Amino acid sequence: MKVSRQLTEFPVALDQDTTPYGLNQFTPSARSLSDLNSNISNGHPGSSRIAVRMAKAVFVGDVGVGKTSLINRFCRDIFELNYKPTVGIDYEMERFWILNVPFNMQIWDTAGQERFKCIAASYYRGSNAVVTVFDASDLESLSTCQRWMDDAVGANAVPPLKFLVATKMDLVNENHREKIDQMGLRMANLLGAEYWTVSSKTGENVEQFFRRIAVLTFEMGLASEITEAFTRPPKQIHLNAAVLRTSNNQDGDSRVAMKKCSSCKNF
Ligand SMILES: Nc1nc2c(ncn2[C@@H]2O[C@H](COP(=O)(O)OP(=O)(O)O)[C@@H](O)[C@H]2O)c(=O)[nH]1
Ligand SMILES: [Mg+2]
Which of 70, 85, 233, 255 has the greatest number of CB atoms lying within 10 Å of its CB? Predict the structure, then answer.
């Protein structure tokens, strides 16, 4: 496993003053889960006895802005200058260990559908993060970001985390950086998204950006698991071999029925 996929330090936002996500250290819940995993795995680093957590991140933006290149730089550490339209790829799966807890991130690239601006809702559904990408060397691509973001976010019942990414920063002249940042930050603010600048060619900020998505979606998943655990009424309570369940008899009253496990005759 690559060292970069073992996350023990909390990855902070590129600009901590403007991000809508103020979290800049691991929550106590994440630390407790990690301690629990260390204890039940008998301290074997990289081994786990607890369920792998998952997140889905989708990438959207005009054709040619650099979505596939960004994903390829992160997942395979490759960069190709020759343009090849994406065909037939659904998603990449990247495995992380976040504070000793296994975590898989599905990274969804478009399969060229963005050309027709009609990406199916099933592509967006169940996203934990939406990454809207524009080309810093072609600011026209910034003007469509709101539509991409709205379409992707709107297909989700639970609001995903939002990121706005300026790619191809290696093509931007130093004197223009400030202007790009100003325009990018203004758009990010409008979208309620966290702003990043990257270059898939040089690798600038690529690792940091993906680590940030991984850790924020991991923390968001933990928070919603905890909320759900406190709000959902328990339907069935498993007590060792016995199963306690509520059943309705013909008179309509509720009572507790107890089922015995066949391998536990003396219970
Ligand atoms: N110089 C430079 N070119 C890039 C960068 N990212 C992508 N490209 C080029 O931009 C073109 C479109 O990239 P691609 O990733 O296929 O865009 P997509 O259609 O959004 O997936 C390709 O020719 C890439 O080589 C970058 O960071 N720097
Ligand atoms: Mg592509």
Answer: 70
* Location of each CATH 3.40.50.300 domain in the chain: 51-205
Does domain 51-205 correspond to CATH entry 3.40.50.300? yes
86 lines ligand 1 (CB under 6 A): yes
Ion ligand 2 contact residues with beta carbon within 5 A:
68, 86
Residue nearest to atom 3 of ligand 1 (CA): 168
Residue-wise pLDDT tens digits, 130-186:
999 999 999 999 999 999 999 999 999 999 999 999 999 999 999 999 999 999 999
**CA-closest residue to ligand 1 atom 12:** 64
Q: Strands 242-248 and 236-239, how do they pair?
A: antiparallel
227 Rama sector, left if φ>0, alpha if ψ -120 to 50, beta otherwise: alpha
